[in-house]
From TrEMBL:
Source species taxonomy: Eukaryota, Viridiplantae, Streptophyta, Embryophyta, Tracheophyta
Alphabetical list of SUPFAM superfamilies matching this protein: Protein kinase-like (PK-like) (SSF56112)
Gene Ontology MF term list: ethanolamine kinase activity
InterPro entries xrefs: Kinase-like_dom_sf
Protein's name in the database: ethanolamine kinase
Keywords attached to this entry: Kinase, Transferase
Keyword match Plastid: no
Annotated segments matching region Disordered: 1-29
CDD domains: ETNK_euk
Entry GO terms, CC: cytoplasm
Superkingdom of origin organism: Eukaryota
Pathway it works in: Phospholipid metabolism; phosphatidylethanolamine biosynthesis; phosphatidylethanolamine from ethanolamine: step 1/3
Entry's family note: Belongs to the choline/ethanolamine kinase family.
Length: 385
């Protein structure tokens, strides 16, 4: 079917997510319309269109009497987890509304905590991050349309843009989300590890490659890395956790930067969020030689730590954040390596997720010695001081 009822109730979920607004935790957080309808993401767009129109008429009463011809729908992107649609609604001869409909990909609930995402979205939206949240339904959401371009990986290496990203990331890390503040990074990694070590593939070649993986070794690496990062006392902040170029938009004429797509957002470690962003300098070609050098990292850190006076950041604080970030660099590789293993089993998208696992895990092993040595040397000096 194109649209159907599901057992999950987004109406109740949104009431819970926005309850904090009524007790003063986050004034200005609006309640948004919700629907239990679900859209079949596997349908071709022409067949999906009437279900999308029906959904929008259900969510937004002001459009309930409009003819279907008033709705224009086109695909914006088909990412590796979502399908994004741009919808233009001709309300009358003078007024047109433009919005986006985001449809969750199949099986993404295995790697994305949708409840966690939904709890955070109203607060992030109220704080001015991403598109405005307009409505939710069983397997997606409706948001305002952002008039901006998606960044390319090379844009993130531009010092001027890097400065703006750093400032915006600092602001993002200061958003209050009324949920438990415990960092979720290691919980997520261990959850991924548990799922990924019990997979079976119908394809013999994939199964053979999968059996080359030593999960005993990965457990050892994860525990060793966790023990080391725990000693760094990285501050807990609400983190984006997926700040690649495709999740940053820029309106060049206004100089306005937007963070989007908060599916992986959670309370986590400051150093991890920054390191994960730096890893994404590698771009879609996964060229980790593009990982920023120390000078470029310090440029980013200065704008992150003191946006109004970046040159006033003490050297010792820059060094500490440098160590923190470049140790969590390893955690980013492990996280996405394990994520890729699960996707290799469940995703219908034609992408070599299994190969991506080996690429990220091999990069972890390549960088481990230097990162561990740097952190241990720093901790040794700090203890002696």
């Amino acid at each position: 079917m194109g649209a159907e009822d599901r057992s999950w109730d987004p109406v109740s979920a949104m009431e819970e997510a926005t309850a904090g607004a009524s007790n003063g935790n986050a004034p200005g957080v609006p309640t948004v319309p919700s629907s239990p309808l679900s859209i079949d993401i596997s349908l071709p767009l022409p067949e999906m269109k009437p279900y999308i129109i029906h959904l929008l008429k259900t969510l937004f009463q002001k459009w309930s009497s409009l003819d279907s011809s008033c709705f224009t729908i086109e695909t914006v992107s088909g990412g590796i987890t979502n399908l994004l649609l741009k919808v233009c609604v001709q309300e009358d001869s003078l007024n047109e509304s433009i919005l986006t409909v985001r449809l969750y990909g199949p099986n993404t609930d295995l790697v994305i905590d949708r409840e966690r995402e939904l709890n955070a979205l109203p607060y992030l939206s109220a704080a001015g991050f991403g598109a405005e949240l307009l409505g939710v339904f069983s397997n997606g959401m409706v948001q305002s349309f952002i008039d901006a371009r998606t960044l390319e990986p090379s844009d993130m290496r531009n010092p001027k843009i890097a400065t703006e990203i750093a400032k915006e990331l600092r602001r993002f890390h200061q958003v209050y989300i009324p949920v438990a503040k415990e960092p979720q990074l290691w919980n997520d990694i261990f959850r991924f590890l548990k799922k990924s070590e019990k997979l079976e593939f119908d394809d013999d070649e994939k199964q053979s490659k999968y059996e080359e993986i030593s999960f005993t070794e990965i457990h050892k690496q994860v525990n060793e890395l966790k023990d080391l990062t725990d000693q760094l006392n990285s501050p807990t902040v609400f983190s984006h956790n997926d700040l690649l170029s495709g999740n940053i938009m820029l309106n060049d004429s206004q100089g306005k930067l937007y963070f989007i797509d908060f599916e992986y957002g959670s309370y986590s470690y400051r150093g991890y969020d920054i390191a994960n962003h730096f890893n994404e300098y590698a771009g879609f070609d996964c060229d980790y030689n593009q990982y920023p050098k120390k000078e470029a990292q310090y440029h980013f850190f200065r704008s992150y730590m003191k946006p109004d006076n970046p040159q006033a950041v003490p050297e010792r604080e820059l060094e500490a954040l440098y160590i923190e970030t470049n140790t969590f660099r390893l955690a980013s590789h492990i996280y996405w390596a394990l994520w890729a293993l699960i996707q290799a089993k469940v995703s219908p998208i034609d992408f070599d997720y299994l190969g991506y696992f080996f690429l990220r895990y091999n990069e972890y092993k390549k960088q481990k010695e230097s990162c561990f040595s740097l952190a241990k040397s720093f901790l040794s000096v700090s203890d002696s001081a």
